Amino acid sequence: MFRGQYIHKISESARVSIPSRFRDILKKKYKTNTIIISSFDKCAVAYPLSEWEDLESKISKLPQFKSDIVEFERYLIGNANECEIDAEGRIMIPNLIRKNIKARQSVVFVGMLSRFEIWSEYEWGISNKTSFKKFQKSRETINDI
Question: What is the mean pLDDT of the chain?
Fold first, then answer.
């Protein structure tokens, strides 16, 4: 499972190194060097190829003509890009996604169990403060489950 937070610099060629722990999980558990990256909220979301295919299978079973589903599908699937991890453990975050998430110099990788998010360091700082406040409110509710 993908866990933790890691800050990595973006190179001048727009490449960024995937955290070594995440690369290890991709190789050992998923047996792949391919991830799918898409825009999601104020970050990019990255899935191992098999997890992405499972998600696409679930989405394909949803009603195809409901406007909210069409919008969701258009945004998530339409922004999806297949990315190969190179020999140095880096990927190139597609330009459009880099612009959407406002990633300029560095990004934060955030483990989310079967996927991970990629945030601009600045946006992550803002979001993390809000998330902590929500976490404090919700942990009692989740504890009751």
Answer: 93
Q: Which of 20, 27, 36, 35 is nearest to 88 (CA)?
A: 20
Write out the two tokens for 104: 């300029």
C-alpha triplet 43, 83, 55: angle, nearest 5°: 65
- Chain mean position to CA 30: 16
Distance (Å, whole) CA 129 – CA 109: 16
**For residue 118, how many other CB atoms are within 10 A of its CB?**
24
Q: Are 46 and 35 in contact (CB under 8 A)?
A: yes
pLDDT in tens, 41-99: 899 999 999 999 999 999 999 999 999 999 999 999 999 999 999 999 999 999 999 99
pLDDT of residue 138 exceeding 70 = yes
What SS3 string covers 10-30? ECCCCEEECCHHHHHHHHHCC
Helix, strand or coil for residue 144? coil
Is residue 121 very low, low, confident or very high in pLDDT (cuts 50, 70, 90)?
A: very high
What are the structural domains of the chain? 5-143 (3.40.1550.20)
